[in-house]
Amino acid sequence: MKILQEGEAGTRVIDICRSYGISDVTFYKWREKYGTPQSSDARRLKRLEEENARLKQLLIDAILTNQILQDTVVKKKLPRDSRARLEAKSGSNRVVSTHML
Fold first, then answer.
1. Which residues of the chain have pLDDT under 70?
2. 3-state SS, residue 45
């Protein structure tokens, strides 16, 4: 990585290759394989943005699931509440059918 950083700093490739005893082909292959520091930062940023989008989608899914579950619980509670009100109004403990409610 130090060799690639020197190339990014403006040192001529031929001088870098001479000082480290490598060919210019090797230098360019390394630069292609490992990229420049800026390109690795760009790849890292892209990965983080993709992960962020995935996590946002998971959060949205969890919120929607939670809302659906809450709506289901509320809907199931309504008939019981209606039944209790009807029993209280009638003044008796008999069971009132709530099928028609």
1. 1, 36-39, 77-101
2. helix
20 touches 3 (CB < 8 A) = yes
Predicted confidence at residue 91, as pLDDT, reads 55
User: Given CA atoms 40, 41, 42, 46 in this order, what sign does their dihedral have?
Assistant: positive
Is 95 a domain residue? no
What does the alpha-carbon distance between residue 63 and residue 45 come to, in Å, rounded to a whole number?
27
Domain that holds residue 71: 2-90
Which pLDDT value is given to residue 83?
57
Is the four-CA dihedral 96, 98, 100, 101 of positive or negative sign?
Answer: positive
- Ramachandran angles phi, psi of 96, nearest 5°: -110, 130
Residue 97 lies in a domain: no
Examine residue 15 and state whether it is found in any structural domain, yes or no: yes
Total structural domains in the chain?
Answer: 1
- The tokens 């700093």 sit on which residue? 9
